[in-house]
């Protein structure tokens, strides 16, 4: 996996992934930024959220669950002093579908956290406390 980060101006950077997708990262005005894009630490949190969400949806589909929607809300706390690393991240999944099995949803969240989500496992191995919970919303469609 490769990535390239290019400084644009002040605190603005463009990151390009190995697959050719680009994203703007920027700092807040008090650090010379123009607030044009996400902060690098936000990007890290988004990456973890995307990784674990991908796992959960994939596992539920393979379990033949009728999932119609999934989103994850992530809440992160950071250290007060430098380096201001993440100290705790909580992931709350909201899974919507028809006749969803609570057992399957719980299993999907656990498998992502414990086995498949490389981003969250890497952060946890680095000392970040990561917790998860979920809610299931039934649809009649």
TrEMBL record:
Signal sequence bounds: none
Listed InterPro entries: KH_dom-like_a/b, OsmC/Ohr_fam, OsmC/Ohrsf
Protein name per its UniProtKB record: Putative redox protein
UniProt source species: Thiohalophilus thiocyanatoxydans
Biological classification of the source: Bacteria, Pseudomonadati, Pseudomonadota, Gammaproteobacteria, Thiohalomonadales
């Amino acid at each position: 996996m490769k990535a390239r980060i290019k400084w644009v101006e002040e605190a603005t950077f463009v990151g390009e992934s190995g697959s050719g997708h680009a994203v703007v990262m920027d700092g807040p005005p008090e650090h010379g930024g123009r607030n044009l894009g996400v902060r690098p630490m936000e990007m890290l949190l988004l990456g973890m959220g995307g990784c674990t969400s991908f796992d959960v949806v994939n596992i539920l589909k393979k379990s033949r669950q009728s999932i119609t929607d999934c989103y994850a809300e992530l809440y992160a706390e950071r250290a007060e002093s430098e380096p201001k690393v993440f100290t705790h991240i909580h992931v709350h999944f909201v899974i919507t579908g028809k006749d969803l099995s609570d057992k399957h949803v719980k299993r999907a969240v656990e498998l992502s956290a414990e086995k498949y989500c490389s981003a969250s496992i890497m952060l946890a191995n680095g000392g970040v406390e990561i917790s998860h919970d979920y809610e299931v919303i039934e649809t009649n469609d």
